[in-house]
Amino acid sequence: MKKLELKIAFTEFDNENELSTPELELLQKARKACDLAYAPYSDFHVGAALLLENGVIVTGNNQENAAFPSGLCAERVAIYYAGAQYPNTAVKTIAITCKSKTFHVGEPLSPCGGCRQAMSEYEIRQKTNIRVILMGETGKIRVVESIADLLPFMFKAEELKKA
Ligand code: THU
Questions:
Q1: Of 75, 121, 137, 158, which one is the catalytic site residue?
Q2: Residue 1 in domain
Q3: What's the pLDDT score for residue 159?
């Protein structure tokens, strides 16, 4: 028996002015997408902006449904759109933010497990890391250099070939 440890590295910025101009612009695009979210049931609005290697920025936001499980998170709306429109173009950076009308989100958004799994598939497929910038309505910004850092022991396609 042995006990092992897994560590992840992340960076925190006190506020958005510490970001580079292109990354601040990406975050602002995520905010605009967040403003357009359709989230009448949760009132938790999320926006994601993806910078592709060709310079194109793709955005998405959460789309809810009266049949709750039929809704989709902002990250998956955005990355599936990118996958559909630019299947062979790598994603470099994803900025994700959120807000609500009924409460204040002062912590960086923490993407749900399903979105981490979905985004990891794209990172593995493109063979280059995707940087993730996370922010709430206000407050600090958390940055990870890779989706893999957000999802240790992720389920990978190679698992399907082991049977
Ligand atoms: N949501 C996202 O869009 N992204 C996340 O990472 C977490 C949750 C959405 C789903 C749902 O519309 C609402 O936020 C509340 O869970």
A1: 75
A2: no
A3: 86
Q: Is the CB of 132 under 6 A from ligand 1?
A: no
Q: Does 71 contact ligand 1 (Cβ within 6 A)?
A: yes
Average pLDDT per 10 consecutive residues for the chain, totaling 163 residues: 96 95 98 98 98 98 98 98 97 98 95 98 97 97 98 90 72
Q: What is the CATH number of the domain that holds 130?
A: 3.40.140.10
Count of Cβ atoms closer than 10 Å to residue 145 Cβ: 14
Do residues 50 and 93 make contact, with C-beta atoms less than 8 angstroms apart? yes
- Report whether 101 contacts 139 (CB < 8 A): no
Atom 14 (ligand 1): residue with closest C-alpha? 44
Whether 73 is in the pocket of ligand 1, judged by its Cβ within 6 Å, is yes
Q: 139: Cβ–Cβ under 8 A, 6 or more apart, which residues?
A: 15, 106, 107, 108
Q: Which domain range does residue 141 map to? A: 11-150
pLDDT of residue 161: 84
* Amino acid 157: pLDDT: 87
